[in-house]
Amino acid sequence: MAKMTQDVRDVLGGQKMLPLATSDSSGKPNVAFITYWKILDDETILIVENFMNKTRKNLEKNPRAAVVAYRSEPKKSYQLKGTVRFETSGRMFEEAKAMAAAKKAPGKSAVIFRVEEIYDSSPGPKAGERIA
Q1: Who has the most CB within 10 Å: 55, 113, 125, 132?
Q2: Coil, strand, or helix at residue 20?
Q3: Is-contact 119 78, C-beta < 8 A?
Q4: What is the pLDDT along the chain (132 residues), one digit of tens a residue?
């Protein structure tokens, strides 16, 4: 597992929506914006599944996913790659349901994103460089 530095956490935490990239079993990509999510620890992001139709199907066949976060000033961007699992019971599911209920969303499951790789995606010579 890769650990998010404080800077990665700060940039990620500043996002109102988080683009989640997946692909189906043939490799066809899909990107969906995630509205309800939170950083659980240095290696884990909790994502609330509300209306992930295509995304859910993709992740059930291929649990690999990526998210990207961008801050405009000062310019910083990170891409995080990892694997996900769905939980429909337990503490994480209850937390996801509560986050969704606060906004009158369904909260179908907790999607646990385990960070495995982190890349610098800021403009400049280090763009694309793996940092963790």
Answers
A1: 113
A2: strand
A3: yes
A4: 899 999 999 999 999 999 999 999 999 999 999 999 999 999 999 999 999 999 999 999 999 999 999 999 999 999 999 999 999 999 999 999 999 999 999 999 999 999 999 999 999 999 999 999
Tokens of 83: 């694997």
Region of 44 (left: φ > 0; alpha: ψ -120 to 50; beta: rest) is: beta
pLDDT tens digits, 93-118: 999 999 999 999 999 999 999 999 99
As given in the structure block, the two tokens for residue 80 are: 């995080």
Domains and CATH numbers, the chain: 6-120 (2.30.110.10)
83-122 burial: b if 16+ Cβ within 10 Å, else e: ebebbeeeebbebbbebbeeeebebbbbbbbbbeebbbbb
C-alpha angle with apex 57: 66 to 23, nearest 5 degrees?
40
CB 37 within 8 A of CB 9: no
